[in-house]
Give the backbone structure.
Amino acid sequence: MSSGLTVRICLLAIACLIYPVVIFSFKQITEWIRDYAQSLKEKTEDLKRQRQLAEDLLNQMLPKSVAKQLRQRKHVEAESYEKVTIFFSDIVGFTSISASCSPLQVVEMLNNLYMCFDTRIDSYDVYKVETIGDAYMVVSGLPERNGDRHADEIAKMALDLVAAVRQVSIPHMPNERLQLRAGIHTGPCVAGIVGHKMPRYCLFGDTVNTASRMESTSLPQKIHTSSETYLALIKDHAYDLQLRGEIEVKGKGKMNTYWLIGHKNFSVQNDSLVCHWNPNMARKKKPAPGSLGSVGNSSATVQSLGENATTPVSLPSSTKLPHEVGQTSQA
């Protein structure tokens, strides 16, 4: 009996010694598991953020639909578009401006200009294709088709950008303002991905070349349009267009072209395109038969009313496309 009691006492003593160790070890393991779970959660969230950043960067370089196919390792087929409207612009006198300042000042000037433009085009159903030096290229009607609205979207955007360029100063010439030369053309186009490393979203076709020719034959603070774009814009009777006449276009021969002067429901105020159209008034007062059907009484111009103001654009929102930086190929 005494030996049995001794064994029980010994076992109890051992249990008393082991129990705190087990409890302490269990607590340590629990804390380690909790810390590991928290660390795993933070790393998972960080991974999600990094993945989202990578996707956002890819979506800025390529259209979302194209980027999705590339992420799935699918072959992206080139696509034909029956009608799109393409906008080109460049800075008047950019070569002489660049020659009179440092490369860093050129970069600063272009960055300020493109940041201004990139903010403005968010209000329109357009896709920024690319920038090459001082050239800025935008298209509407692809990669997502928008019916017959592509010419209207590009036209309003062009008026806005021509007004907005007056906000951008030249770093080494603070009292001077940049001037834009713009061109627009409407027609068929083919778009697709070119290249495997650093793939580029390119536009192909004569429409690209003709739009570029409209820009190169334009004048400072003018928007030069082809007859195809003219026909697309006069359908709504909302735009002020002026016949430029027959001009010689490189590679195209003689062409009848037009100046886009403005929009009847928009005007330039403080270097911004401001809408004067009131949909409530339009519903109350229907236009008489044979009228232009415009409610506003202000006509947009492409001249700035104030060079130093930075009033934001006030425009009706359209369906937005991804405004990523794409690429193009032109002859």
Q: What stands out?
A: The chain has two domains: 1-61, 76-284. DSSP finds eight helices and twelve strands in the chain. The first strand starts at residue 79 and ends at 91. Helices lie at 2-61, 64-71, 94-99, 103-120, 150-164, 206-216, 227-233, 279-284.
